[in-house]
Design goal:
about 550 residues; alpha/beta; Beta-Lactamase; Rossmann fold; five-stranded parallel β-sheet; 23 helices; 19 strands
């Protein structure tokens, strides 16, 4: 925007604003200032004595408008006893907010309907990029999305008494949360105030202590998180490298497809290093708007820009002091910020927005990406010097389809976890269903597997999970696999007339019944393309509708597309 356009916007604001030039002369005032601060005062006469009127508090914002001008925000001081009371209450509220923000625990405040009103700074460390989007949202909605589960606030609203629960967060942390209700005079809930203590590290230490007699410390950590199940040779090699590099201060870049567990490996590296017990701070460069990512990373000084906190704010780099900063999706970092990150990596030095001097930090940098940064360097969207600084050691996590030995153990881990979480019975997965799950390609990797197991635990009405209970995408993939196997197994057999056989000939390798079932499966699978419902399918095949329903269930097929 041009200077004239900006002045037009400032002129309609209710807050009185002044602009002074470098020599201290009044350059411009907006309409609100003319009607309040300079009411009855000619601007030329003010430039002679330069005494600002009484009754106002003046806040200077250097470089907030342009480098050659200083903006002054004018706040009217209280006059009467009622206004003074309001002023004092506001001051007390500010002090209370500062006190809450200084707490090492999470503070969460909602209204009587569960709508988020206020959270403290600690929440930023627990929910990362979701902060700023929590205020105004319902805890019932956040609970449903598993941002945190169960919601202690929701329990307080349901039972109208103090509640304490063990919560799980969206990034796998564990919190002990206590909620209390504040009531109106008529007995309705006015506010719910909850506070939570992060006990994730305590649980890890407890798990390590219990298993220390039988396994090494590194092996214990590797098995704490389900994502680090490593029965396959490729994953075992990956974890051995992670264990070795954890003992150093080398920059580590973790690569792999979306959902393979890059953040879990980063946490493992942190927990296996001498920085264990110090902060582990993660920031996803892809989830934060470009206009905000600089302040999120490096923080800002008070009065740096309009809308900034008066006291300023520390960035994620400073929050990771003494610990580890994990930059996920580093390939999404804007080019103009890569120079500042290079200063951090090389010099351990940052500058807050609006700061006049640098700040030195002791922070280890881990990064992750699912993009090809070498290609980005070639086209000029990623700095070559930064790439080589971050790419000292690369840990490449293989996709789940390339380590089928890990699929069954992962399913078992998540099955136990969600069964315990939802208080259900123990589940048994049939052989056919497990075969479909282990041959599925898992394009979403471990994240997809986790979500699918949770879906099965929630939706299964009995403890037996068979092929028909699996999502359509898995059953369809399994059907295609069976057809491919069938063609490979029977496609080469010649009939007596020299043509291809239908697969009905008995061989020593397969009994007659198996051949019949395979052929029947292929018939039903092909006929699905010609029918919209089971009635049409029955007419097409010349069988009863009940037979069609039974056979589709037997073969794990479905008409839905």
């Amino acid at each position: 925007m041009s200077r004239e356009e900006v002045l037009k916007v400032l002129n309609v604001l209710d807050t009185p604003l002044l602009l002074l030039d470098a020599s201290g002369h009044l350059h411009w005032v907006n309409q609100a200032a003319k009607m309040t601060v300079f009411e009855g005062i000619h601007l030329d006469s003010w430039n002679e004595d330069r005494n600002l009127p009484d009754g106002f508090s003046y806040v200077l914002h250097k470089d907030a408008f342009e480098s050659d001008l200083t903006m002054i925000e004018c706040l009217r001081l209280p006059e009467g006893p009622d206004e003074r009371t309001i002023w004092e209450l506001r001051q007390e509220n500010t002090e209370l907010a500062e006190l809450i923000n200084s707490s090492l625990d999470e503070w969460y405040i909602t209204d009587g309907e569960g709508i988020t009103l206020q959270v403290n700074d600690k929440v930023e460390q627990l929910y990362g990029s979701l902060v700023g989007g929590l205020v105004g949202k319902s805890v019932f909605e956040l609970e449903q999305k598993r941002i945190f589960y169960p919601s202690v606030t929701a329990m307080v609203l349901r039972h109208r008494t103090q509640q304490t629960v063990l919560q799980s967060t969206v990034d796998g942390r564990r919190l002990v949360s206590t909620g209390n209700a504040i009531f109106n005079e008529n007995g309705t809930v006015k506010r719910v105030i909850s506070y939570a203590k992060d006990v994730t590290e305590l649980e890890l230490l407890t798990a390590n202590h219990r298993s220390a007699a039988v396994v090494e410390r590194s092996d214990t950590r590797a098995n704490v998180a389900a994502q680090l199940v490593s029965n396959s040779p490729s994953m075992q090699s990956c974890m051995r490298l992670a264990s070795r590099v954890a003992r150093t201060e080398a920059a580590v870049m973790i690569s792999g497809e979306t959902g393979v567990g890059k953040n879990r490996v980063a946490k493992y590296v942190h927990e296996s290093s001498h920085r264990a017990g110090r902060p582990f701070v993660e920031i996803n460069c892809a989830s934060i708007p470009e206009s905000l990512i600089e302040s999120e990373l490096f923080g800002y000084e008070r009065g740096s820009f309009t809308g900034a906190r008066r006291e300023g704010k520390a960035g994620k780099v400073e929050l990771a002091e003494g610990g580890t900063l994990f930059l996920n999706e580093i390939g999404e970092l804007p080019l103009h910020l890569q120079g500042k990150l290079l200063d951090l990596v090389q010099e351990r030095r940052i500058e807050r927005i609006g700061a006049t001097s640098p700040t030195y930090v002791d922070t280890r940098i881990l990064t992750a990406t699912n993009r090809n940064l070498r290609d980005m360097v070639e086209v000029g969207t990623f700095r070559e010097d930064l790439y080589y600084r971050l790419h000292v050691v690369e840990i490449e996590i293989p996709p789940l389809r390339d380590r089928p030995e890990d699929i069954t153990p992962l399913i078992d881990v998540y099955l136990e976890r969600f069964t315990r979480q939802y208080g259900g019975v123990s589940f048994e997965i049939t052989e056919d269903a497990m075969s479909a799950l282990t041959t599925y390609q898992w394009p979403g990797n471990i994240r997809e597997l986790e979500n699918m197991v949770e879906y099965l635990v929630i939706t299964s009405e009995d403890k037996r999970i068979d092929l028909s209970r699996l999502p359509q995408v898995v059953r369809s993939a399994h059907s295609r696999e069976l057809v491919a196997q069938s063609r490979g197994q029977f496609g080469g057999m010649k009939s007596a007339t020299g043509g291809r056989s239908s697969g009905l000939l008995e061989t020593p390798e397969k009994p007659w019944k198996a051949h019949m079932e395979r052929t029947e499966y292929e018939i039903y699978s092909a006929a699905l393309e010609r029918a919209r419902n089971t009635r049409e399918l029955a007419e097409h095949l010349g069988v009863s509708q009940s037979t069609v329903v039974r056979k589709l269930k037997q073969f794990g097929l479905s008409l839905s597309r």
